[in-house]
Write a structure and sequence with these properties.
The protein has a single domain (3-90), classed as Barstar-like (Barnase, Chain D, 2-Layer Sandwich), CATH 3.30.370. The protein has a 3-stranded parallel beta sheet with strand order 1-2-3. It has helices spanning 15-26, 36-46, 58-65, 67-82, and strands at residues 3-8, 51-56, 86-90. It is of the alpha/beta class and 92 residues long. The termini are far apart.
Length: 92
């Protein structure tokens, strides 16, 4: 059975809020380090699949987080490329 999680990008105004949203939605392990490398590692090793992640209001998150969101998005996309049972979608 596939699991689907949604991140509400309109509710994220800081990197800390992004990490809180990801940790809650993805049920990241307690040892999760709240950085991009730790996110990639958790997504490719710790989080069970199949999993679909949808980031809604990505444009709003990009406006508030700028280049940080670009790096976060790239990390999520890299994890999806590394794992056949993970999909990531970004909605405007």
């Amino acid at each position: 059975m596939s699991r689907h999680v949604t991140i509400d990008g309109a509710a994220i105004a800081t990197p800390a809020q992004a990490w809180d949203a990801l940790a809650a939605a993805l049920e990241l392990p307690a040892h999760f380090g709240r950085n991009l490398d730790a996110l990639f590692d958790s997504l490719t090793r710790d989080v069970p699949g199949p999993l679909a992640v949808t980031w809604r209001a990505a444009a709003a998150t990009e406006r508030t987080l700028g280049s940080y969101f670009h790096r976060l998005r790239a990390t999520l996309e890299d994890a999806a490329r590394a794992r056949s049972d993970l999909t990531v979608a970004f909605e405007p």
